[in-house]
Amino acid sequence: MRLPRPRGPVTAALFARLATTPPLDPWPCDELAPARSAPVPRALGDGDLQLALFTCYELHYQGFDDVDPRWEWEPSLLAFRATLERGFERALARAVPRPPAVPPGGVREALTEMTAPGGGPSLAAFLRRHAGLAQFREFVAHRSVYHLKEADPHTWAIPRLRGGPKAALVEIQSDEYGGGRTERMHAELFRVTMRGLGLDDSYGAYLDRVPGITLAVSNVMSLFGLHRRLRGAAAGHLAALEMTSSLPNRQYAEGLRRLGGDAATARFFDEHVQADAVHEQIAAHDLCAGLATQDPSLAGDILYGAACALEVERLWAEHVLACWRRGTSSLEPPGEPGAHAAEESAVASSA
């Protein structure tokens, strides 16, 4: 994967730096100004800010072929990332109220209540019954940003945990990585789905096409996973994903078969129907409730992480459905990053 096209002054400054060789003199403060001055309500959907943060995080994953790997721990880049993260955390705090405090023993029940199916438009239901093949392919392109690194953001939390919660997270992640078998890794299963739909299954292939809110879905996971202070939020985030996964994945599989998808192409979704039905119990009880019992101070963070997962996912789904209702693509036009800037602003401000 190579660096994508910049989407504004923040990514332009960042990519210009990453094109050089570290170490360098400290990063001039004026280059940080665009990140500092960005309106907080727009930060969740701002393509320029989200792409900059995604790029900084990606240096800890697969990296970029045209970026010197020594940038990963370069102090001035870490300081730049910290500035972006502060803005992102403020935007999350504004968009996602912290759930009411509960005692450690109430964490599992609170998670169950938060993740109960609600009303309103459902992207999964639309994909099951109404989506055309082009729309389903768009959906998969959006999801590729995360699913081609599936499990990696939450895996950062493993060394930050101990005892039962650590064992629970390892058990979940082991399934995500296919129990040690490459062909069963969920990221590899998703590649099969992409190929079956005629999509490019290379890592980061659609980074230039997805809007800021799609990048925010991935960035929340990396933010929580890469900071020990947010380990409770990482656990809650994972639990929310697992507890809301089985039914939508069943609907995705049914929608894909309605459109002519074969068993191999639908296997990724079928696998999640089964695996996540088990994972949700482990995540809610052994991981989250266990962690809250072990460290009661993390109970609030666990629920906040879950709330962030649910809200950012909702905003992303709203963006996609709103575009489709208008008869437009939910992806950026080729060669025109930022074309959905007004839509992203509306999505963010609705939070």
* CATH fold node name of the largest domain: Heme Oxygenase, Chain A
Q: Which structural class should the secondary elements be placed in?
A: mainly alpha
Which runs of at least 5 residues are low in confidence (pLDDT < 50)?
A: 341-351
The total of helices stands at 16
The helical percent reads 55-70%
> What would CATH call the class of the largest domain?
Mainly Alpha
Number of domains: 2
Q: Mean pLDDT score, rounded?
A: 91
Q: Cα distance, first to last residue?
A: 32 Å
Strand content: under 5%
Shape: globular
Largest sheet: none
User: Roughly how many Å is the radius of gyration?
Assistant: 19 Å
Q: Please tally the β strands and state the result.
A: 0
The CATH architecture of the largest domain can be named as Up-down Bundle
Q: What is the ordering of alpha helices and beta strands? A: HHHHHHHHHHHHHHHH
CATH superfamily of the largest domain: Heme oxygenase-like
Give your account of this protein's structure.
It is a single chain. The model is unreliable at 341-351 (pLDDT under 50). Helix 5 runs parallel beside helix 15. The longest helix has 32 residues, at 263-294. 62% of the residues lie in helices and 0% in strands. It has 2 domains: 9-95, no CATH class; 104-350, Heme oxygenase-like (Heme Oxygenase, Chain A, Up-down Bundle), CATH 1.20.910. It is mainly α.
Helix-strand blueprint:
Elements: H1 9-18, H2 33-37, H3 47-58, H4 75-95, H5 107-114, H6 123-129, H7 133-147, H8 152-155, H9 163-176, H10 186-196, H11 212-226, H12 231-243, H13 246-258, H14 263-294, H15 299-325, H16 341-350
Helix pairs in contact: 1-3, 3-4, 3-11, 5-14, 5-15, 6-13, 7-10, 7-11, 9-14, 10-14, 11-12, 11-15, 12-14, 12-15, 13-14, 15-16
